[in-house]
């Protein structure tokens, strides 16, 4: 994934960008992800591509169309491997691998950096929808007008920064509750799957009466 992202900046010719684009889409399809997920990942880059091409056209005229398309394609190809990585990698498996090379504190920071990207995209969608319901000209058609770009900063980016700071504060409290600051081995949520061999009864562990769950008629097969 890292090599694909690095190759996106090294690619300059149209054929190299086309090869990288085909490889990324092939990798996306091989990951058994749906086209709906693909559309959710690329729609923001389509809007970004339109804005970049318009800015290049206003600055350089017709000669700026190809550089604008090339820069937009490079940005898209740089983030595409990361999107595939986030959708196909379990958070627990990722932090396990990171802890082999990094300390628990740094591995938690890297994990949060990866996992917060889709969170911020969802926050952006919620803020944009709420502002549009309030009458802000933030629809894709209205954003093509440069006069409406000033509303993007006031209605989108400032609330997004506020939510990002709030999310970072909550993540810091979560890390502190898990023992990141104390220097001890922090705790992580982990699920285990116990498979009982065929023909063998499931063994239950007696519990204290105060810890028994309330089943039908105060009876539970797992607590007996």
TrEMBL record:
Q: Does the keyword Protein transport apply?
A: no
* Cellular compartment(s): Membrane
* Lipid bilayer topology: Multi-pass membrane protein
Which Pfam families does the protein's record reference? CbiQ
The record's principal subcellular location, in a coarse class, is membrane
| A single GO cellular-component term on record | plasma membrane
Q: Show the InterPro entries listed in the entry.
A: ABC/ECF_trnsptr_transmembrane
Tell me which UniProt keywords the record has, alphabetically: Membrane, Transmembrane, Transmembrane helix
Which chain regions cross the lipid bilayer?
Answer: 14-30, 42-59, 71-89, 101-121
Return the protein name.
Energy-coupling factor transporter transmembrane protein EcfT
Taxonomic lineage is: Bacteria, Pseudomonadati, Candidatus Hydrogenedentota, Candidatus Abyssobacteria
């Amino acid at each position: 994934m890292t090599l694909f992202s690095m190759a996106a900046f090294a690619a300059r010719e149209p054929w190299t960008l086309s090869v990288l684009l085909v490889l990324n889409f092939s990798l996306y399809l091989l990951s058994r992800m749906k086209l709906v997920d693909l559309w959710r990942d690329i729609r923001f880059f389509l809007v970004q591509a339109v804005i970049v091409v318009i800015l290049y056209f206003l600055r350089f005229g017709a000669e700026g169309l190809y550089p604008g398309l090339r820069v937009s394609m490079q940005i898209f190809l740089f983030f595409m491997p990361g999107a595939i990585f986030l959708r196909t990698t379990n958070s627990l498996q990722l932090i396990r691998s990171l802890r082999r090379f990094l300390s628990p504190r740094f591995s938690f920071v890297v994990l949060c950096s990866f996992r917060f990207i889709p969170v911020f995209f969802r926050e952006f969608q919620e803020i944009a929808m709420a502002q549009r319901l309030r009458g802000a000209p933030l629809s894709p058609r209205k954003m093509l007008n440069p006069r409406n770009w000033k509303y993007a900063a006031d209605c989108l980016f400032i609330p997004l920064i506020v939510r990002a700071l709030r999310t970072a504060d909550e993540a810091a409290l979560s890390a502190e509750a898990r023992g990141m600051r104390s220097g001890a081995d922090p705790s992580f949520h982990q699920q285990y799957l116990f498979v009982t061999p065929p023909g063998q009864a499931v063994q239950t562990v007696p519990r204290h009466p105060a810890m028994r769950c309330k089943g039908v008629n105060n009876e539970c097969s797992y607590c007996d």
